[in-house]
Fold each of these.
Amino acid sequence: MATNKELAELIFPDVKETVKDLDKRFPPRTLPEGAEVTRFAPSPTGFLHTGSLFTAMIAHKFANQSNGIYFFRLEDTDQKREIQGTGLDLVKQLKNFGIVSDEGYFGDHEEGAYAPYTQSKRAEIYKIVIKDLIKRGRAYPCFCTKDDLDDLRAVQEANKVIPGYYGEYARCRHLSLDEMIANIKAGKPYVIRFKSKGNHLEHVRVHDEIRGDMDLSQNDQDIVIYKSDGLPTYHFAHLVDDHYMGTTLVTRGEEWISSLPIHIELFEAMGWKAPKYAHLPVIMVNDKETHNKRKLSKRKDPEAAVSFFLEQGYPKEGVIKYLMTIANSNFEAWLLENPKADLKEFKLSFEKFSLDGALFDMPKLCNISKEVLANYDKTTFTDQCLAWAEEYSEELASLIKRDRPYFESIINIERDQEKPRKDYEKFSDVLEKVRLFYADEFDKLLAKGELPFNDNIQKEVIASVLEDFVSTLDLKNQDENTWFAEMKVLGTRHGFADDRKVYKKDPTSYVGWYADCISIVRVALCCSTQSPKLFDVLTLLGEEEIKRRVAEVLKTL
Ligand code: GLU
């Protein structure tokens, strides 16, 4: 009679190391009290989903706030779905958001005592653990073909029983060791399955850090742990990696809750302590057509890809702060009280976690971003804006670099004050808003045509207001108040009322009121009816440029 040991040796003749050797190679970590070891474990399938950024942010934060370790593991065991080279992109994109690993896979290299952190490079490690399970009769080879499994499903559907490979339906678990050995020797292809001891009619109590205790049906499926390509499945890699990498807290999407009984049973079978689990809510949106809640989708929603925020130039701090509002219900109130505080000062907690699939709220993200950008000082704003522009807008980058102090003065308008002006939501808004401050850009705007002057005011009046404005301009001796008072008087010389109420009472006696008069100056200097505070615009442009612009505008009237 053959033994489990013989079977294990036949399957893995070259695997000489044992689980004990692995225990020595990857000893437990020594950590400060309360420190959590967390990880982000994406598959390199092409792009970073906003939901994945959320997951990574949470893992990073829990490690950081507990003086623990956060690492990045590349889960590339599904080689059919893998897109080569995208692991590095994931690392880079996370770095953009300040999520940098303490150890793990870094795209071009790996760092840390628990390496390798790329699953396809860990094949030998998985084999050692599988060999151990086979030796102990807790795993076995399964020779069922795809057709066999299809037939099994058909039978189970007809009998209206739970589908899957378990109990009496797990055909290969009932083969004798001799039969298994004969099949392998005959060259029959196989996978390796875990031999479950569970019963789905019984419950297992599992704990989720967000949801608390849950009673779920025990696992009784003999899941595949080792595929014919020599790599493990997710479940098995999770067991081995999170054990040997010393993960204390697994934060992952809630789609994994239903697999928890499998994972608990795998840890039990190895006699290992399972990590804590926190299953994070999935980010949802309201579908514009059906008005139903659905998952944020790569195909339908641009904001599902993190690259969207990077390309548009949303400040990374704005995106992260927004995602924190999804994570913890008390974060928004904290943010209102501490708009300038470092995020490190906020303590993320599982008690305050929102459980319902959080709705992605783009207007809220935009507001938070505006607030973040308004609260930056001019240097921080310019540094970040330039870094963005160097990648995404050559035109803006060259404007900034032409005269950085000038650019800083432009974006500093109404910034250094108690309630800073919220001009910008993202860096891609900047170019259009600063253009007017540059002489050559102004000329281009002017050449494009139509100045949006008020149609009700005659051209002659516009011209004489502008002429009067430049001839009385004396910025050296004017401050905002004196200039404004003089503009009111100037207006009266051209038929404008110096008081709104007076004008409203008797509009036919006036050309307009003083705001209409000032608007003429604004349109002439900015080619727009809107601008930052006009006096700031005047100061930045300087008298010479103001006069040049007015002369150019007068030619077009
Ligand atoms: N690779 C898995 C995923 O992308 C990781 C889940 C986990 O964090 O354990 O869903």
Note: DSSP finds 23 helices and 15 strands in the chain.
Amino acid sequence: MKVLVIGSGGREHALVWKLKQSPRVKEIFCAPGNAGIAELATLVSIQADDVEELFRFAAKNRIALTVVGPEVPLVKGIVDRFERDGLKIFGPSKRAAELEGSKAFAKQFMKKYGIPTAGFEIFSKSQFAEAENFIQQHVAPIVVKADGLAAGKGAVVCQTRTEALNVLGEFFRKNIFGEAGSTAVIEEFMQGEEASVFVLTDGSGYRILQPAQDHKQILDGDRGKNTGGMGAYAPAPVVTKAVLKRVEEEIVQPVLRGMREEGRTYKGCLYVGLMVTSGRPKVVEFNCRFGDPEAQAVLPLVDGDLLDILSACADGGIGSIEVKFHDASAVCVVMASRGYPDAYETGKAIHGLENIRAEDGVVVFHAATRKENESFVTAGGRVLGVTAIGYRNDLEGTINAAYSAVKRITFDGAYYRSDIGKKGVQYFHLKE
Ligand code: AMP
Ligand code: GLY
């Protein structure tokens, strides 16, 4: 079987790596991919959002399954385009992807179906004065979010009302996100611990992967600017069996049912961003795809053929497939370029990758690299996802394995957080 993976980050490298282990996969293509992915897949130089070109490539090359990594092509309707001509593709349709593409839609949907989430109000640009009034009447912290896709920058947790008013002004007056910010969701701040849960679904049946935790901020201790994610680990003990049961009953099942009722049957991976407060999960956000870097920690834990699993989401029948997990924990530490998430330099030579061996339980997923004269150089903000897989009951050991690998890899200006997974270790100590 020929498979095409769309995207170019660490998530896509992890998808390619896992799919490649399937005995049924004969050849893997990745569009556009990166230099690390090129070790496993044939790169295709088509951008991830060029729906028509991707369709043409898949049709011409008789791709049996296309797997979409990032949200942009999904929100643009790549699944509808492929399915219209009978091509098999893993991901939600355009109307289903609105769960990520429009925060206003997602919030109204949750309200209608009684799915637990932060209280909110929605305002369009023409309701600027009402929105300001609303902020004035609430206590900080207040969360202000742009309705549309804003590359992960559209949600701002404001510590004061003044800050919330400023953010609103940036959306409505300065149009910093253009159309995506012309409607705003203003919501209540939720206290608690965040976790990410991936639901693989064919629209009615589903399987839930191991819960993970991302580390969104640039500095240790969750301080500093928001990034695309500086590291992840799984399974995340904050999502206990009891929490997961609530997630299934109070969130996953009503979401899938509600989306069917709305005529927006949701297929593919539903990323449920959770806030867990005293054992009660609420939805922070939905994404219509695997999370990154979470996927780099979650996919290695799947004990089974990912091609079978993803195909069963596209074709139907995921509910009758057993998805097993290794009795293991995984920790992914992101190595980034100095300056990220602001300006940074690229083209720095990466050394030490040859010292990392799969036999030691470590795999390095590339997020942004290219090759110059046969060696890898940096090509973006987040460069590598160094992922260790270790014993499930020894998260601390897995963390140490990840960091000992990180220390063997160098490039000029390499930056990483030194506390990835630490939140999870506390739970192990609590249990003792
Ligand atoms: P979002 O783009 O909706 O995922 O928001 C980005 C980040 O902002 C989340 O991962 C949370 O850390 C934070 N956040 C968003 N909404 C809330 C909320 N209602 N309460 C607390 N934190 C939030
Ligand atoms: N790690 C957060 C995201 O993928 O949206």
Note: The longest helix spans residues 241-261.
